[in-house]
């Protein structure tokens, strides 16, 4: 009997000891391990940082890539009937109607659409071609800089140059017959006195004109009744 009681008491003491050990082990299990041994699991896509994509800025479109402006029929280069006593090779500038005629002879001429001087900057008279230049540099004259001081003092020739692809210089004046990188201004009174053509037309005229050729600029007072002299 005594042995049975001792056995039951020993069993209780053993149970308490096992419980204490289990509690101690559980407590230790809750403490973080100094070095995690779990494998690195992939993060959900929503939590992953977005991949770095370098930003590429689009290059500006070059003027020469743009579609050329469509000129009205009256401003397109064409061979027309033109009665004049001037010799072949003469240039006649019809300021009010924004036309330039290159005399062929036999009552014919090549007619080009042009841009001319704005109000207060038109002029008339007879000059001659004293110089020709391809893709000319531009040096604004002092008179122009005085009116527009923000202009560059010099600009190298090229597609962005206001004188365009070709220039023909008129006598000892500051005026030129030249191309333009703004074909929409053909048919308008917009310049400071120079005569402008599209780059295609000025290149065609340039190939025909010789240094020394006569140039007649008609006065603006000859404005035709059926034309405003501006682009339609």
TrEMBL record:
Record domain L,D-TPase catalytic: where: 89-218
GO BP terms, alphabetized: cell wall organization; peptidoglycan-protein cross-linking; regulation of cell shape
GO cellular component term, pick one: extracellular region
Pathway assignment: Cell wall biogenesis; peptidoglycan biosynthesis
Hydrolase is among the record's keywords: yes
Record key words, sorted: Cell shape, Cell wall biogenesis/degradation, Glycosyltransferase, Hydrolase, Lipoprotein, Peptidoglycan synthesis, Signal, Transferase
Positions annotated as active site in the UniProt record: 178 (proton donor/acceptor), 194 (nucleophile)
Residues spanning the signal sequence: 1-29
Gene3D superfamilies per record: L,D-transpeptidase catalytic domain-like
Domain of life of the source: Bacteria
Molecular-function annotations in GO: glycosyltransferase activity; peptidoglycan L,D-transpeptidase activity
Pfam families attached to this UniProt entry: YkuD
Family (UniProt): Belongs to the YkuD family.
Protein name, per record: Lipoprotein-anchoring transpeptidase ErfK/SrfK
Organism: Rhodopseudomonas pseudopalustris
